[in-house]
């Protein structure tokens, strides 16, 4: 196990570790900060600077067969239709890195809403720029980009339903199953763009194999050749469910409810009652009665019993 820090120059790797990593054959770059409300400085340092530093290290690997950059299907969510191609980034890699160097945290936080503009959060904003970082710094490296949508628990391998985090949809499922989450602002009839984790891993491996197979062709393409399509210079693979097997949030949560009631968790704190509310006003009212008031009551009981409120 070699530890590194994506937010630091040179990944904060020792010379010995760098020499060890030069013998790498395949890179799957999936490390990132995925918090939607992450401070821009940290999001840029990890998602963009870290990607650039890893690509610079990859250029020194003589036996590298493929470099797979794991992006997200929502990196360019400002477009109505996402094709398997590169898009113009909201800002160039070196420009955003320069901004970080010349601005302090207070100044950067102040202009963050202006910088991200149409992008909904710093996560997809930095992932969009990182894709262009890959395009710019992967010259001479057999590289591809994969864009999975919302990753959920496994369908089959290593066992059905396995997951090791509570990000995104998994957090909603867990919170509702335990009786903690009672309402969510969401259109129940919109498509839940979710894919099982084991299918995603298989997709990564297939993309890596395809990139390695096309290695000589990819490396022979001149970056300035206008006759070569962008998709041939840098293969991009979207991995989503909406095209082949769409499911709505209503259907997804109904399935989770059915299985959850059959085999409930021993950690449940309240009986299952969960609703998806399309209208923000209805959701806010539901929050008051189903989250805030019960929380106040529980805290009051804890105080009376001499315990610390949660």
UniProtKB/TrEMBL annotation:
Residues 2-202 form the Thioester reductase (TE) domain. GO terms for molecular function: alcohol-forming long-chain fatty acyl-CoA reductase activity; alcohol-forming very long-chain fatty acyl-CoA reductase activity. GO terms for cellular component: peroxisome. Pfam families: NAD_binding_4. GO terms for biological process: long-chain fatty-acyl-CoA metabolic process. The keyword Phosphoprotein does not apply. It catalyses: a long-chain fatty acyl-CoA + 2 NADPH + 2 H(+) = a long-chain primary fatty alcohol + 2 NADP(+) + CoA. This is Fatty acyl-CoA reductase.
């Amino acid at each position: 196990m070699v530890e590194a820090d994506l937010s630091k120059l040179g990944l904060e790797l020792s010379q010995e570790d760098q020499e060890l990593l030069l013998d790498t054959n395949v890179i799957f770059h999936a490390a990132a900060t995925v918090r939607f409300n992450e401070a821009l400085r940290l999001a840029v340092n990890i998602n963009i600077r870290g990607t650039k530093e890893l690509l610079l290290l990859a250029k020194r690997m003589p036996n590298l067969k493929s470099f797979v950059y794991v992006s997200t299907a929502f990196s360019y969510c400002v477009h109505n239709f996402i094709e398997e191609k590169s898009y113009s980034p909201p800002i160039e890699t070196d420009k955003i890195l320069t901004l970080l160097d010349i601005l302090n945290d207070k100044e950067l936080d102040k202009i963050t809403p202006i910088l991200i503009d149409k992008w909904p959060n710093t996560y997809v904003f930095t992932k969009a720029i990182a894709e262009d970082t890959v395009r710019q710094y992967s010259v001479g490296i057999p590289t591809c980009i994969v864009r999975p949508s919302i990753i959920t628990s496994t369908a089959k391998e290593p066992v059905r339903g396995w997951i090791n985090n509570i990000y995104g949809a998994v957090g909603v499922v867990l919170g509702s199953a335990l009786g903690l989450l009672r309402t969510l602002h969401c259109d129940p009839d919109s498509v839940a763009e979710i894919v099982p984790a084991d299918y995603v891993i298989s997709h990564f491996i297939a993309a890596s194999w395809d990139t390695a197979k096309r290695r000589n062709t990819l490396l022979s393409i001149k970056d300035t050749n206008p006759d070569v399509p962008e998709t041939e210079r840098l293969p991009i693979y979207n991995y989503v469910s909406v095209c082949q097997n769409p499911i709505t949030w209503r259907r997804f949560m109904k399935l989770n409810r059915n299985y959850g009631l059959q085999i409930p968790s021993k950690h449940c704190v309240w009986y299952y009652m969960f609703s998806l509310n399309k209208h923000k006003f209805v959701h806010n009212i539901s929050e008051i009665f189903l989250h805030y008031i019960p929380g106040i009551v529980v805290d009051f009981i804890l105080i009376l019993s001499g315990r610390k409120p949660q």
